[in-house]
Amino acid sequence: MKKGQWGVAEETVQDAVLVASELLTNAVRATRGRPVSLRLALAEDGLRVEVWDTSPVRPKGTAPDLSMPETPVPDEAPDPGGWGLGIVEFLSKEHGVRAEFEGKTVWALLRTRFRPSG
């Protein structure tokens, strides 16, 4: 997304970069070097971020409550991951997984703010 191209607020651009990063990281981990793709689309209902990968396995993870001022984190977490889907959930109006002929698409519809015109 070229900065300023779609007229969305900087905050929305930052959210899109973070969500895309989380979804792409999950896709790369799930497919171990096989193809993945990213698609961004701006529609009336918001900015949609979609990541396709070749794995049919749906992402798993606990979505931590990111609205809490302090979320306790264990001193020794068995897996350093597991926060990505919680971040995606927190930043999106809706999110989900769509099965494809080969693999799946994980998507998020972001809360979208636009820059003031003029």
TrEMBL record:
InterPro entries per UniProt: Anti-sigma-factor_SerPK, HATPase_C_sf, HATPase_dom
GO molecular function: protein serine/threonine kinase activity
Superkingdom of origin organism: Bacteria
Pfam families in UniProt: HATPase_c_2
TM region(s), chain numbering: none
Keyword Kinase attributed: yes
Keywords on record: Kinase, Serine/threonine-protein kinase, Transferase
Residue numbers spanned by region Disordered: 55-79
Name this polypeptide is given: Histidine kinase-like ATPase domain-containing protein
Protein species of origin: Actinomadura meyerae
